[in-house]
Amino acid sequence: MKKTWIVTLETYLRQIKSWSFFFMVISPFLMIALTVGISYVSADSAASSKQIAVISDSATLRQSYLKQHATGVNRKITQPTQAKKAMRENHLAGYLTLSTTTDRVRADYHGNNSLSSGTQAQVQNFLSQYQQAQNYQDAKLTAKQQRLLARTPVFKQHIATKAGTTNLTRTISFWILITMIYIILITYSSITAQEIASEKGTKIMEIIFSSTTATSYFVGKIAGIMLVILTQIGIYLLGGWAGYSIAVNNAALKPLLADNQALINGVIHNLFNINLLFLFLGVVIYTILAAYSGALVAKAEDASKAAQPVVMLSMLAFFAAFPFQNNLDALAVKILSYIPFFSSYFMPMRIINNTANWGEQLISLTILLATIGLFALYVGRQYQRLMLQTDSQNLWQHLLKRLRHQ
Amino acid sequence: MLSIQHISKVFGPVKALNDISFDVPQGQILGLIGQNGAGKSTTFHSILNFIHYEGQIQWQGHAITATDFDQIGYLPEERSLMTKLTIEQQILYLARLKGQSAKIIRPQIDDWLARFAVKGTRRSKIKDLSKGNQQKVQLICTLIHHPQLLILDEPFSGLDPVNADLLKQAILTAKQAGAAIIFSSHDMENVTALCDQLVMLRKGNIVLHGTLEDVRNQFGKTELYVTTDWTSERLATLPHVTQVTSRHANHYLLHLDDANAGPAIFDALTQGHYIEEFSQQPPTLDEIFRLKVGEDQ
């Protein structure tokens, strides 16, 4: 056990101290930061050229408009000459001149392009309100008369929001979960196969197998890789939590998050339940398969070749899940949710959509755990022979040979 | 004591080992010699349970299991280390796998590096070391936990004479500490200098086994070293002389087909006069090796 832990620790530390691990972990954060940064800079520079100036001889009229429409207006420009210069330098989309005659309020827009429909509606709305107030004043109406004239009809839409949110929650949860499983499997299948194959190439295994048993070493190796995976998931969870905390305290995002709180809670619930266990065990069984496959190659350069069957199997399970996301009662889904290597994709799909009861989940989990145990035992026993042999066979050739032999 | 009894191993149609038996007591060194493919590495792999074999191998009276691994030091034929690690990390990792505590091993590392004159510090990366220094680090990894059974596959391969002497000294130190040592080598000089007994394998069979003296004496004293003013042509006319080899001026090696011919040759050469050298000896290990290999060809 102590030697297994020594191997686990060595594998873990060597992986997490590598630059490749650092870049692998940091790259999603960099991409998000880059995307947000570019969007911000681009939005900021575009925003200034999309602004309009509001010019009026009447300070009251201008202030009334600015009070109602704070965004999209360059407040610094107050004169037509300033506005024309800013337009020439592409810092302004146009300018609006507001004026009043004896009984009418008027707006003129000067720009290279016509106003957007939203801004047009804003201007139209402002003018109507201002004109109405002016009219009421000129007509000398009482307060009661003004209230009566201000009456408007009522129109309200009643949407079954709960059902809509539930469906959206399921769809988002499904995509996040299977994409997470797929990306982790694809990444770590190659890393595992490479890790194992690189040692086989160096023949250091003879020294190691004169110090500890192959099973102990194999278990240590897999445990080390699992720790690396858990570290990466942990960092992402921390990053997600930090991002969420920042978003919650951000004035611009707070209303958006508040509006979608039910959706967010639903997705988090779907991810942090038994599905996470299926994800983890899926990664374990694929990692063992990748290690087994890596042990079959003769040299490190063949590691990518060795990982291919594992990657293919993972891709098959991933893409097989697509057509069934809206047809979860299909017999194929029920069968595949019990078959190891597939159950990590298909059982979470059923759990998210509430089509698998606790008994079914437990049976699937038991089958998966038993398969992992037996598979690890089998590979552990074969490991020394595989690591010390010098012939190169891929996974299928090896399995065929074993079957023929038996 | 390491006891190997009647072990055989077959790889497909090839019989790699055929009924091999020998013992290596504590505090003794056994040299395993033979041509490439004779079965030396297969013998080592059998001792270490890397391969399945027929027969019985025992260490201290029982079959070797994982619990004995901590007492074994093994140097494989092909040198190999984890090149991304530092010297210290590499030594500590392998020592910890041998059941040693890092606290005990860490303070010893500098001494071992100095003893083997490794060009580098404990923080040097393995990949930055020369091939010879990597080999020395690997030797340190093999010896640092003071194994009671030392298995060295071609330990002198690639070492210059100075470093070979350092290794010889380390092997003798381990012997004095009571280790049973078995090593293979193509260098008969090292085998002669170190071994208490030797085993020669040929195509998986033992063709020679015993102490160096016993093995040499099996061949009789058929080598005659003489210093004389006779010419090589004249020496060749002496009875039972099959070959005359000139070593240097007036120094000759006569090969005899009968070890009993010595006295007659002595009389003929001296004729009552003094000669500088007349030494009748069995063949050297190197010559025996060539002879045995020659028999096969």
From TrEMBL, chain A:
Main localization of the protein described in the UniProt heading: membrane
Stretch forming the signal peptide: none
Spans through the membrane: 21-41, 172-192, 274-294, 306-324, 331-349, 361-379
Membrane topology: Multi-pass membrane protein
GO molecular function, one term: ABC-type transporter activity
Subcellular location: Cell membrane
Domain ABC-2 type transporter transmembrane: residue ranges: 19-376
Keyword Transmembrane carried by entry: yes
Alphabetical list of InterPro entries matching this protein: ABC-2_transporter_component, ABC2_TM
Keywords, sorted A to Z: Cell membrane, Membrane, Transmembrane, Transmembrane helix
One CC-aspect GO term: plasma membrane
Protein name: ABC-2 type transporter transmembrane domain-containing protein
Organism: Levilactobacillus brevis ATCC 14869 = DSM 20054
TrEMBL record, chain B:
UniProtKB keywords: ATP-binding, Nucleotide-binding, Transport
Residue span(s) of domain ABC transporter: 2-228
Molecular function per GO: ATP binding; ATP hydrolysis activity
Keyword set includes Nucleotide-binding: yes
Entries under SMART domains matching the protein: AAA
InterPro entries tied to this protein: AAA+_ATPase, ABC_transporter-like_ATP-bd, ABC_transporter-like_CS, ABC_Transporter_VariousFunc, DrrA1/2-like_C, P-loop_NTPase
Keyword Nucleus: no
SUPFAM superfamilies: P-loop containing nucleoside triphosphate hydrolases
Signal peptide: none
Protein name: ABC-type uncharacterized transport system, ATPase component
Organism: Levilactobacillus brevis (strain ATCC 367 / BCRC 12310 / CIP 105137 / JCM 1170 / LMG 11437 / NCIMB 947 / NCTC 947)
Lineage: Bacteria, Bacillati, Bacillota, Bacilli, Lactobacillales
